[in-house]
Amino acid sequence: MKKTGGQLIVEALEANGTKRLSLVPGESFLAVLDALADSPIEQIICRQEGGAAMMADCWGRLTGEPGICFVTRGPGATNASAGLHIAMQDAIPMVLFIGQVQRDAREREAFQEIEYRRAFTEVAKWVAEIDDARRIPEMVTRAFAVATSGRPGPVVLALPEDMLRDEVETVEARHYTPVPAYPGEMQIKHFVAELQKAERPLFILGGSRWNEASVRQFETFAEKWAIPVGCSFRRQMLFDHLHPSYAGDVGIGINPALAQEIKQADLIVLLGGRFSEMPSSSYTLMDVPYPSQKLIHIYPDPNELGRVYRPDLAICAAPSDFVAALATHVPDAPPAWSDRTIAMHAAYRNWSTPPASGPDGVHMGAIMEWIEANLPDDAIYTNGAGNFATWLHRFHRFRNYGTQAAPTSGSMGYGPPAAVAAKALYPERTVVCFAGDGDFMMHGQEFATAIRYNLPIIILLINNGIYGTIRMHQEREYPGRVNGTGLTNPDFADLARAYGGHGEKVEKTEDFEAAFKRAQESGKPAIVEIIQNPEAITPMRTLSDIRGS
Hints:
Elements: E1 3-4, H1 5-15, E2 20-23, H2 30-36, E3 42-45, H3 49-63, E4 67-71, H4 75-90, E5 94-100, H5 116-119, E6 126-129, H6 136-148, E7 154-160, H7 161-165, E8 167-168, H8 185-197, E9 201-205, H9 212-225, E10 229-232, E11 246-250, H10 256-264, E12 267-271, E13 294-299, E14 313-316, H11 319-325, H12 338-351, H13 364-374, E15 380-383, H14 389-395, E16 404-405, H15 415-425, E17 431-436, H16 437-443, H17 447-452, E18 458-463, H18 468-477, H19 492-499, E19 502-506, H20 512-522, E20 526-531, H21 543-548
Helix pairs in contact: 1-2, 1-6, 3-4, 3-15, 9-11
């Protein structure tokens, strides 16, 4: 039976397990839209392609399966590139389908034409164009395999609009085959021997290709060995923060005591992550290329092992497969470093206790304490980029896998579309987005998407009237010379109501609890606008402190 290219795309998605996708419609893939009308695949229609791509990234981040997104050619594709960059730097599986000009118009700078293989090579693992509809099952299944194998990441497939209308006969698509990366038996023995010899070991978890079972398995391993464990920047959901082995977040604004422990460790185990600029404090926690600490690096891509840091032992394996291989290994005697681990966890508990006061205005420390005491452990938190995120990263104690969606690339605006995606994936769970006023306005239009699909997310919009992170850096480097960082904002509570959602404005700390509860009880997507004094730029330092120093 002959089928259109559009039908074959949708059938290939179904065969590869796609249950939902995000899109902004375009005339360049009308044949796919028509085929989706007969498909059980859930569609989230978005308001901007960057938000659509970020939703797909969030699905890939929380499930380990490729997030799927469709956008139109030209400006639609370039809008979506922000989400591609996030997925590439964060090693998140995603497949982005882009409508393309018809085949006989290529290389003429036709309407909205871009050659995607030239444009997106730096922000995707593989970029291809499907010229022949008969190859759709092959190419789509390969896209899923590439996106999930080795170091995961995004794949781009361009779809010429006339190819999607072609009617052809071809094979039925089949589900892609996941590629495991098991560690060798001798590598595990070497690893255990090095751990037994260590006096001051420290593990740093990061990356993707984890799952709930592997996180729990590693927590059991950490408990048996009493090893101190840190989580890389915006990967805090990889370890229970109240576990006695947890030592803290290895990210921006790291606890100085933890940074010192990393520098003084005699064995560092990087498990799953690259340890790039942000978690490494601009490559100062370990020397490049030869760390002073003995280094064991476990990562699913051989091209990354030794690229920045030359390890003493390199193991090419996904973290989930590596952790599974550790299950039978237990220490012969109580480790000598147990007291050190206890002290490091105590230091983390102290570091993650919010300050009781601050500059005049709403005190975020008290708000974080209320959130910690009242929201469930399986609540999902999303955020974009800005100093506001420090309150979440430092003072929220993550307990479970699958509760965090935040870009390690530092892309602004990620939080609102990610919250929409998370709520669509887990409608029974509480989903809270932390956003700044500058951050929210990047992709805040996806609040309309939450309204359309009745997804009652709660956005805590921390409004200080400035691009806070840039202002902080500006005051440090050019004190008193303020330029380009002031903002003029709408009334965000009124904006929520204008969209059809619930809006609250909090101008006093003691008003937050009631405002949050009203937002929950409304059953609607909600914005709780928190008016913050710009002086409260970090939990411990004000703008005046930074300017004065």
